[in-house]
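cron nightly-structures :: item 1 of 1
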Amino acid sequence: MDFSKLHKIKAFVFDIDGVMTDGDILITDEGQFLRKMNMKDGYALHLAKAKGYKMAAISGSKQNGVFHRLKHIGIEDVYDRCLDKITQFNKWLEKENLQAHEVMYMGDDCIDVDCIKAAGWGVVPSDGVEEAIDAADYVTQANGGRGAVREAVMMVMKLQGKW
């Protein structure tokens, strides 16, 4: 793996379902969707925000409860119902005055492949789909929602001396 890419990373962009969550959805009798997030991933994101990294999340689904959690951590740019993720990714880069090579993108499914390829460091959880894994620079040891976010963020921050 080419670790030199990690020195250039200034920002993190994540898919949500299957990356920040394990991809399972619990459905209440009222029809609400419930997702579970990993506290250790949350700590890594909170620390990254405190150290000055820019962050965003781009999801293809509606994420009301998750939005609240991410905003609590410090991720203010959260985009849902986004089926054209690469367009949103590029808009966010422009908004933040960033180049794609300065961003780690982490996704797990076919809808993420264009962003994984475009980013400076494309990362996929170990339980991501084959198409995403084939496009990635790095596949985590951890599954989505089970520490994969922390593993990738911590790798960047440790290499940059910010962990």
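cron nightly-structures :: done
Residues 39-50 form the longest helix (12 residues).
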